[in-house]
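Deliverable D2.4 — example input (structure tokens):
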């Protein structure tokens, strides 16, 4: 039995599938409890149903990109492991980049089943899990304090003489700064790819997705179409991916 057959073995499907089913059941339980709590609070049932429909619709479009990520990784890591990582807590951009970096670090020479070994797969799988687990770990110790802070009333303005720093909005600022830094890092790597390999496709795809997102925001403002928020991210992603296929044929 070759390595790819082992990575697609029924045992791995059973383990990974069992975890995914468990998480899906937990999500369903919380969804039912949230719906009942909404009714108990007097929230309009029609509004809750519209929220459910919009959420379900928004989840379908991004899942297409996730499916493509599973397909892309399954050729070197098997199907069960990418399926688990991208179904529960993983992210498409994170999983693919970490797996690629780990493969290069262990000397596989990129994500390819030709050079994959059991030791390399274990290293890649551990790194993919270890780097993303800290959100779950930290929330155990800091989740209650963070929730209390969110539920508390806005802090009164500090006396100018005390000159104490107000950190009430630090979370939003930090997330915005982190997102800008992440996008800048990606754009920088795309520019480096052009300089090193002459490959302009990643930068072109990023530009296309940015233009589509801008058009969605413009349409929302001009037409007051708030519903487009549920489709803008997934739509820009799918359009950019489609353009990447056609642009790739031109290279």
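Example output (designed residues):
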């Amino acid at each position: 039995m070759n390595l790819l057959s082992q990575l697609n073995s029924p045992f791995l499907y059973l383990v990974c599938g069992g975890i995914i089913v468990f998480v899906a059941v937990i999500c369903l339980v919380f969804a039912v409890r949230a719906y009942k709590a909404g009714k108990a609070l007097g929230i309009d049932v029609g509004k809750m149903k519209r929220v459910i429909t919009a959420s379900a619709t928004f989840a379908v479009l991004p899942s297409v990109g996730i499916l493509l990520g599973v397909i892309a990784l399954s050729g070197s890591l098997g199907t069960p492991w990418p399926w688990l990582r991208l179904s529960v807590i993983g992210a498409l951009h994170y999983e693919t980049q970490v797996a690629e970096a780990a493969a290069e670090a262990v000397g596989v020479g990129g994500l390819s089943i030709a050079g994959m070994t059991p030791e390399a797969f274990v290293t890649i799988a551990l790194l993919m899990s270890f780097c993303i687990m800290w959100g779950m770990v930290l929330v155990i110790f800091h989740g209650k304090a963070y929730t209390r802070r969110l539920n508390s009333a806005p802090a009164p303005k500090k006396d100018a003489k005390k000159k104490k720093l107000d950190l009430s909005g630090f979370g939003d600022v930090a997330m915005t700064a982190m997102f800008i830094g992440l996008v800048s890092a990606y754009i920088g790597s795309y520019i480096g790819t052009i300089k090193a390999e002459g490959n302009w496709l990643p930068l072109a795809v990023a530009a296309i997705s940015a233009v589509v997102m801008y058009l969605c925001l413009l349409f929302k403002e001009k037409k007051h179409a708030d519903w487009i928020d549920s489709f803008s991210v997934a739509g820009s992603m799918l359009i950019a991916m489609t353009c990447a296929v056609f642009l790739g044929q031109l290279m």
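The mean pLDDT is 82.
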